[in-house]
Predict the structure of Type III PLP-dependent enzyme.
Amino acid sequence: MQGIAYAELAAEFGTPLYVYDADVLARQYGSLRALLHPDLEIFYSLKANPNVSVTAALRALGACAEVSSLTELLTARQAGVDGDDIVFVGPGKSRRELQAALEENVHAIVCESVGELAVVDELARARNQVARVMLRVNPGFTVRGSKLTMGGRPRQFGIDEDLLRRPLGSYGAVRLTGMHVYLGTRILDEDVIAENVRRIFELAERHDVPLESVDVGGGLGVAYFDGERDLDPVVLTRLLNPLVDKFRAAHPDTRLIMELGRYLVAPAGVYVVRVRDVKTSMGQRFAVTDGGTHHHMAAVGMGSFVKRNFPLRFLSAPAADESQIWQVTGPLCTPNDVLGKNVLLPPVQVGDLIGVLRSGAYGPTASPGLFLGHGYPAEVLVLDGQAHLVREADRPADLLRRQRLVRTLTAGLHQSGLHRRDDGGGPVR
Ligand SMILES: *Cc1c(COP(=O)(O)O)cnc(C)c1O
C-alpha cells in the first residue's frame, strides 16, 4: 500500500489488522466531488467507519458529517467538523444525545417522529435555544434496486409522508428547516439513485415544509461480489446534476445534502490476516487464519442468504507458480467462520498473509468483536506514504477490566493462585 509492503505493516502492527489507504479515500471522494453538482454537499456517514482519523481525512478533503450517536458526534467534532456541518440522524436518540446536538449547535437534528420533535422542543426551550430540525420522511413510495429498501412500508424510521398533510403541532423552540429521506443502501444502479433523488425533490416540493435544507440520503454501493460492477461517477452525475440544477433554480437558497458512507470508505480498506495453520479435511484444503467473523461479519456473509466471497488477495510471495482451491477460515469455534470459500490461491503456508479487499466500511464496528474475547483489531491509516496506528487492538486486560468478579465465588481459590494468571499485557493474538 503506497509502496509499503503488507509484510512490513503486519510485522510492525501485528495481525489481524485493518489498513486504510488515504490515497484511495482521496480518489474515491475526489472523483465524485469533481463531477457532482457543486451545490450538492457530501456528508460522510460515520456509521460506515467511525475511526476519528478516517473521519478527519475525509474532513480534510471537504466532507461534512452525518452522525447517529453521541460517540459519532464527538468523533466528528474531534475530527474537526464544525457543528454547522453535522446532521444528527437516527431513531431512538437519547435525551443526552439530543442535548449534545443542541450544545454543538449542529446543522440539523433530523427528527424521526412527532414524539421526538416534542422532546427536542422541550430540551431546546430549557436552553433558551431554537433547535434547527429536519424531518425524516418515510415516503409513500419505494424505488427498486436497493439491497435494503426503506420507503413505501412500515418502518421505525422517519415520519410517514401521510402525516405531513396535516399540521404537526406547534413547537416554539423548534425551527423546521427541511426534510431528510434515506431510501436504502448498496445501490449499484445509477438510474435508481437518480430516480430516488428525483422523487425526493418532488416530495420536498409537494408538502408545506420549509426548504432551507434538503437531505437526499445516498446509499451508493460498491461492488463486492462476482457479477457486480462499481457505479460510474460520470454516468451517475450526468443523471443527477440536471435534477439538482432544476431544484436549485426553484430554491436558490436551499442547502443540499447527500450522505455517503460505504461508497467513500469501502474501497480504501484491507483486512490483513495471517495464516496460522494449514490442513486438509476430506480432500479440501483449509487455511486457518487469525481473522474472521469477529472483525468482518460482512465478509463471512453473516446475515446474508448465500455466502459470497469478498475479493481476497494473497499478500505473500507465492511458494510456487500454481493455483489451488482453498477454504480460508478464522479462529472462531463456529463452522460459519469462513472468510473465503473455494478461493484460488497459490500453495498456502503457515505465516502467509491474506488480504480481504474493499473492507473499509462496516468492518469491526459492525461485527461481534467480543466473540471469544478477541476484541477490536488494530487499525492503521497510510497517509502520504506513512503508516499511522489509528486504533490500538484490544488486549485481554482491556476486555477483562469491565467485568466484575463476585469475590465470594473464588474465595477458596485465593491461596492456590489459580486465578492469578495475567496475560493482559500484549494484544489479543
Ligand atoms: C446507514 C445510513 C447511511 C450510510 O449508508 P451507506 O450505504 O453506507 O452509504 C446514510 N444515512 C442513513 C440515514 C443511514 O441509516
